Structures are given as structure tokens and as C-alpha cells.
Known about the structure:
6-stranded mixed β-sheet; 13 helices
Amino acid sequence: MGFNCGIVGLPNVGKSTLFNALTATAAAQAENFPFCTIEPNVGRVSIPDPRLDEIAKIGGSQKIIPTQMEFVDIAGLVKGASRGEGLGNQFLANIRETDAIIYVLRCFEDDNVTHVEGSVDPLRDAETIETELMLADLESLEKRLPSLEKKARSGDKKIQEQIELVKRFLTVLQEGRPALKAGWKEDEADAVRQLQLLTTKPILYVCNVAESDAADGNDWTKKVADMAAEKGAESVVICASIESEIAQLDDAEEKQAFLEEMGLTEPGLNRVIRAGYKLLDLITFFTVGPKEARAWTVRRNAKAPEAAGVIHTDFEKGFIRAETIACDIFMSLGGEQKAKDAGKMRQEGKEYVVQDGDIMHFRFNV
């Protein structure tokens, strides 16, 4: 398990260029004309974590398997997509199951790259995208409600609860606000997920800038950061063209030299991942052995059985205990046996809350 993000944006904002760079593929065409992305593209990237390499080295692991992040890139949206403008919103279904949505916003001037609105204004573009997503959610719920009301005649209490939830979201959307603003209780979370509404998902704003602004951003990115803070979202500054060049370099030293030349300390992908983790409140735990060292993603505050279930559902069902070593202790002492000898391996039960960097071995019985 990693996490997945749908990528949305207006045409010609660098969305597909960014997708190609982040996934280091040429899966998405990247051309200077609207609607070059017709079919949704899906790409996975390994999440860099220097701890994993160190753990694998100490554990003598033959394979290293990082956790992954998935990107789903769809055709560019335009104002009026919900009414069929451009390619319409026909591809939004492809991102309904994602964990979060990345809004790629153009924050650079370039006379050679056309803008569908005729000028650069990332705040306006973000509003256009959000409006189209809200209208898509509104249409989805309006289609769903009659069917639910028909089923409710049987007196099913759960169906009635669903109807109330749908009506609550409809009210907010009809007011021109995203469904997220309706709020929901913890015990309604599963029902909300089943609705697969686009505007209940966390948002990461990715500001695509010119090379000269890659290190420090510009006035537009500052405005986007302020907007993100107001909305409880995250924002990242990235230069898609630089990321494209980094993706073509195989040698680590070459990459580092290129980054330094650009005034950067790391690739933009790393910043996107960190922002995504923060947005979704995720952490990483590890498993290590002679065959493989592996990273796994789990939500913060997850208990040990849930983490076990990320590896295999049987591990969660038959959970007995977790043998746990903190990552920094494992590395400083030089491995599992030395941690055991020092009394630093803990036996944790079902109520243990997993910590970022835990190295875990699960005991189970099914």
C-alpha cells in the first residue's frame, strides 16, 4: 500500500509533463495544445526513503522494496466541462477512487505556451477546477438519490442514513461549496468513501513554475500557499521542465550536480511525497530479513493489527503480537540480534499504536 493521487488541471499547465517526470516515463503525451491527454494515464513511483537502504544493508537483504505512490493523470479540464465543454468531465470517474487530488496550477509566463483563459492566474484556475469537480459531484448525487429513496421504502435504516448523508452533501454543493464543507462523523467515514465524491478528497496544489523560480517560487506561488493554508490543504512549488531533465539522468552524482546547479537540494518528487504524506497523515513502517527489506505505508495512529493487515489480511485476522524495534535503534545498534541483546526489541499487542520508522515482525495464527 502506498497512496494514489489524481492529477487535474487546465490544459497546457504542465500536467502531463509533470506526470511523465514524476513517473520517469513517456506514458503521457506532453504537447503544447489542449487535450493532448485523451486516455487516463496511470504511473507508479517508488518513494525514496534513505532509512530503507540503511536497514537493508544492515539486515543483509537481497532485495529492497520501497512503498509506492500512484499518479492518475486525466485530460485537462476547462470551464464548462460539466456541460460538455472541451472533453467534458468524462474522465473524472478515473480519479474517484484516489486518496487525494493534485491540482496542477500554472505559475509561469511563456508566450510560446498558450493558456486556455488567455492569461496566467492560478487562483482563478484553481476555482475553475474546483467548480467543475463540485458540479460533477452534484450530478453524481442527484442521479443516486432517486434510487436510494426507492430502496428506502423497505424501511432499511442504513439506506435512510445514506439518504440523509447524500442530502447533506447536496445542500452544501448546491450552495457552491465543496462537499468537504458538509463534514461527517467518524462512524460515517466508510459511507462517505463509498460515495466517491471528488470534493471530499484532500487537495495538494502543485505550482508549476519557470526554472528561474524553482528554488524560491514567485508571487503567484505565495498566493497559492496562502489559499492552501486557508483551505487546510498543502502546496508545493515544482518546475516540471527541471523534473523532466532529472528523470533522464541515471547517475545519482549527475542528478545531485544538476540539482545544485539549479539551486535545489532535492527533486520535486520528494517534496510532493512529503506533502502528500502530511496531507493524508501517513507514516512508514518496515519489515526486514535476508530475502528483502520493505517499506509499508499506514495511516498515523493505526494500531498494530491494522499495520499487519497492510501486508496480508490473514496477518490482521490472526494477529497475536508484533515484535518491534525503533528504526534509529536498529541502525545505531547494528541490526535485529544486537537490538534483542540490548533489550530493545519490544513485544507489542493489539492496542499498540504504530510509530513512523518502526521495524516490525508480526506473529499471527489463522
